[in-house]
Amino acid sequence: MTVYLPAVPGYPLVGAALEAAGLTVRDIVHVTEYVTLSSLTLDSERAQALGGDRVPVSRVPVEAVVGADAPYAVGVIAHPGGGELLESGDDVLRVAGGVVHLPSVHTTSGDFREQYRWCLERTGELLAVAGLGLDALVRTVDYTATATRAEYPRCGRPRRELLPGPVHPGAAGILVDVPVARGARVSLDAVAATGELTVLNPGWQRYDTLTYKPAVRAGDTIYLAGFGALDPVTQVALHDGDLAAQTAFVYASIETVLAEAGATGEHVTALVEYLTPAAAGSYDATRALREKHFPNAAVTAVVCSALLRAEFLLETVPTAVLS
């Protein structure tokens, strides 16, 4: 069974976190590096911690990692045995438990739309190594700068052309003002699955015209989109300036989608929560609500630069397992 661990402040703590879960570094299938300094290179720390094993890596620039007084933190996904290692140029993939774990991708050439298209096409090239196409995607998370907010809708064309559906992945869009590399206007993180995919949607018609869905089920795992305090019918942002109210609305929305698969918040195994700087100081006050709704979730909370809707203080990306 795949295990999601909350981010820890630095590679030296990864081994102990895995040991507590009954796993070792040989079981790692993906790591996400949340970095607060654009100049920070972690190749040597990663190689030492992983004993030379190669795993797909996602690098996410953030303003801060909540609860971690360190320049970076590492989130780990592990599966007993570490799955199958596949290579595509300098990139690697891991396939474990029917899930294809991919590295994040980016380019520094072209305008916003061209870079977004390149990221999707490169993701397709990576999936081809596993004998799959972009129709196998179950979730995408893109990271762009606040300055691109006005032109963000331009990513719709490459998504419509390259992700024709009918099963679209869950998706989240996060704003980070320090690019993953100079000249990169977008960085894309994605995950795919090898089996049959099923869309979960509690009748929210807004998704009929979008290139992402509220959630996708692959086997026993549910990959949900990013959820903010947005009314799914009116598309009006709710509870402006009130983190507690936004959090309660987001969690209720997640549980509404999970119910489509007969699941509850207890099935959520991982939450990645993106907070705006204005929300970071109040985040701890939402702990009790989070533990009530998602008592079994490994939680990673990071501070991003902003979210696509200026009213949002929080966006939550959950993963659930039916077992």
UniProtKB/TrEMBL annotation:
CDD domains: YjgF_YER057c_UK114_family (cd00448). InterPro entries: RutC-like_sf, YjgF/YER057c/UK114. It comes from the Bacteria. Pfam families: Ribonuc_L-PSP (PF01042). This is Uncharacterized protein. The lineage of its organism: Bacteria, Bacillati, Actinomycetota, Actinomycetes, Micromonosporales.
